Amino acid sequence: MNVKKLKPDLLNDYHLLSFDELDSTNEEAKRLARNGGSHGAVVWAKRQSEGKGRMGRTWISSQGNLFVSLLLQPGKPLGELCQLSFVAAIAAIEALEDMLPDKHALQCKWPNDILLEGRKLGGILLESFQGEQGKLWVVVGLGINVDSFPPRTEFPATCLQDAGVELVSAKIILSRFIHHFIERYNEWNIKGFAPIRKRWMQSAWGMEQHLCARVPEGNIEGIAQGIDAQGALLLKLGNGKKHQVHAADIFPVEMAGA
């Protein structure tokens, strides 16, 4: 396996590790943490043989797309770490929006997807674990469909090339994403979740729409009313009460019943 350290224009103590191929950038970041790695490692692979998404799903990892994971040690309570998914989503939107004729075509779909014109362009996988001496680590994984996308997905997918974005590469998007992530991560560390939540809501998909949240106990239907101060999705149920959804897949009601 060809491994090399690059020196991109990253800030602070962030450092990039580039691989031709990995099983999973998230798994490599976790290995780094267990073997003396440090906060700020950015793991980038051109291919993944065992890429994964939420809930153990396979993430199709064709060469030309972006697969990157950040190893972080935020020093915040476990209950707040899920907010990093929103930090990463905003950074991804900001990295991509100048490439498109209509930046409003990019949206954040709760809890961890990036949409382009209503189709899935990318996703975020957050994993936290304890290392030596009880240190709490977080891995923030991001996948963006640059050159291709998987067919026949449950939620329709797309890629930048299919949307007419030319002369762009995974490396360019990576550099832009890291720049914006560092800015938003520092903002989150200093000011908390409130400004992140506000910015995420500006690009939120499905708000005020009738959605179905698929949870282990069954489906919950309601009108999306935003996210709360911790990042849970708020659904207004048929009886008028608001219900917090902490983890689920969400779909338009007509798609969920298909």
Relevant terms:
eight-stranded mixed β-sheet, 13 strands, single chain, 5 helices, five-stranded antiparallel β-sheet, 32% strand, 258 residues
Describe the model.
- Helices cover 22% and strands 32% of the residues.
- The chain is built from five helices and 13 strands.
- It has an eight-stranded mixed beta sheet, with helices on both faces. Strands 12-11-10-9-13 form a five-stranded antiparallel beta sheet.
- Helix 1 links the parallel strand 2 and strand 3.
- Helix 2 crosses helix 3.
- The protein starts with a strand and ends with a helix.
Tally the helices. 5
Helix share, percent: 10-25%
Number of strands: 13
- Strand order of the biggest β-sheet: 1-2-3-4-8-7-6-5
The largest β sheet comes out as: 8 strands, mixed
Mean pLDDT: 89
Structural class: alpha+beta
C-alpha end-to-end distance? 44 Å
Question: Using only CA atoms, what is the Rg?
Answer: 18 Å
Low-confidence stretches: 1-10
What string, H for helix and E for strand, traces the elements in order? EEHEEHEEEEHHEEEEEH
Rough outline: globular
In short:
22% of the residues lie in helices and 32% in strands. It is α+β, with helices and mostly antiparallel strands and 258 residues long. A hairpin with a 5-residue loop joins strand 11 and strand 12.
Structural topology:
Layout: E1 3-5, E2 15-22, H1 25-34, E3 41-48, E4 66-72, H2 84-96, E5 106-109, E6 113-116, E7 119-130, E8 136-144, H3 170-191, H4 194-202, E9 210-215, E10 218-227, E11 233-236, E12 242-245, E13 249-252, H5 253-256
Helix pairs in contact: 2-3, 2-4
